[in-house]
Specification:
This protein is α+β, with helices and mostly antiparallel strands and 604 residues long. The chain contains 19 helices and 28 strands. Strands 4-3-2-1-5-6 form a six-stranded mixed β-sheet. Strands 12-11-10-8-13-14 form a six-stranded mixed β-sheet, with helices on both faces. Strand 18 and strand 19 form a beta hairpin.
Amino acid sequence: MFQSFEDHTDPSVGAPRAALLRSELKRLALDGFLIPRADAHQGEYVPPCDCRLQWLTGFTGSAGMAAVLGDEAAIFVDGRYTIQVADQVDLGVFPARHLINEPVTDWLSSRLRKGQRLGIDAMLHTVREVRRLREICSAAGAELVLLEDNPVDAVWEGRPEAPVGAVKLHPEKYAGADAAGKIARIQADVAAKGADACVLTQPDSIAWLFNIRGSDVSHTPLPLSFALLPDTGKPTLFIDGRKLSNSVREALSGLAEINEPSGFRPALEALGAEGRAVMLDPGLAGEGIALAVTGKGGRVIEASDPVLLPKAVKNDAEIAGSKAAHVRDGAAFVRFLAWFDDIAPSGELDEIGAAEKLEHFRAETGVLKDISFDTISGAGKNGAICHYRVSRQTNLMIPVGRPFLIDSGAQYVDGTTDITRTMAVGKCSAEMKRHFTLVLKGHIAISSARFPAGTTGAQLDTLARIELWKAGLDFDHGTGHGVGSYLSVHEGPQRIAKTGVVPLQPGMILSNEPGYYPEGQYGIRLENLELVTAAAGIPGGERPMLGFETLTLAPFDRRLVDVALMTASELAWLNAYHRKVLDTLAPHLDDKSLSWLEEATAPL
């Protein structure tokens, strides 16, 4: 199994560990310290050695921050985790605050006093974050102290070692372009920005650029590393040499100088001492990186990571790989659905059993590299926790008479998948069907949208919500995120969300996943991956249009559709999609699964 169901979180750790940290802060003459859920790469998935927020508080979500002052503390999470944080954290020690509605900077502004010293780890907060923290400290008459050594590490007994996962070369037939050509392309962008060099801090950017994949974090093939890319000449890759076999080192040495991570800061300082202009992404690079350059006399040019957009716009080989991966994954998922439909109505299946069986069907493809994230297998009230992670402590039997939500994905060498389906277990109520249908209508609105070039995800986001809004309902997460090519299942810069400001381009892959989660009852989410494509012209139209091609192949549960709420065009979309699913997957299914799929995709 790629997924573990053990839960090592314990709310009771909060009080003694907060006390340990406060003792260390006192020793350092600090009045407070911030603990983000981040590592030096600012990635979503961090290795155990960098899970400081979890160690301190017990919180395991993918976004959050804790603030510890001398006599008060708090934990900040977004709307995805308001239920989870109450289960995992001692709220008497770390009262929960909404990361968006009451950001940590607002909380600090009302508490910092003149002369106080607030500490941060300079590598764990981005340049942009530190700029704001400096502003609020200055306004309060307090001092922001940037530390090279993290005080949490000083009191963390038994902290895990840094990972040394093996690095592999990613074949060009899947990458679609050779690494030398990619490097030259990015160097041209660096030179155009007037920079002498560019810092790459994102492991997925580095993996894409050098056509490598790693195994340093769970479920995402990332090689934790940094890179310095000059405007001309060989880049330098800063990576633990223990991750490189002789053959991989030899291949990479033809592209870059190989150095240990300990050489990263001296290299930055050397550029600074030479008065060089170094480009970095202020929303992704730690403040410690900028200080290493400017502290020695260099200059920082703030610009977006130049790899993000080229990586997001998939080439022909990456698109072909994603399509092949979705056919393979779709067949495995349909086999799971047929099995689930046979077993779940007995009332003898639990959340872990469902997740294990789905991974089993994917493993039977013979080419599964990993799952792309921990499967969200949510029965009853757990389904209402939109980023729920099932554990042996929380595992529920799947109840009859309620929807069951399963959100999962796979990593194959040719593509990354992510799919959510909500299935009826037994007879569900009319209200459950209404909620399901409102979510489905939002999903169809996104999938069938046609929009002009230059449209952003923020402009599309409303389409997924409008039917829910009409009913006074909503969901507290984005509608869609970008997806990588055998890389991160959550990839920027593209997204369909209120914060999605990057124009969508052909070749981008995004999720389409509206939902609804009545607290304590059940959850509904419906997710496909969509490829942005050039759309057919509209008669009488004046502008070229873009649209989506759906990649995911699996039926929606017809038993939960309230046909009376659907328009004729929505039913036509659903029936056409189901026809495509059946026609595409039929050659890849055994007789039993095919018979089930034929019934599951019958026209409404």
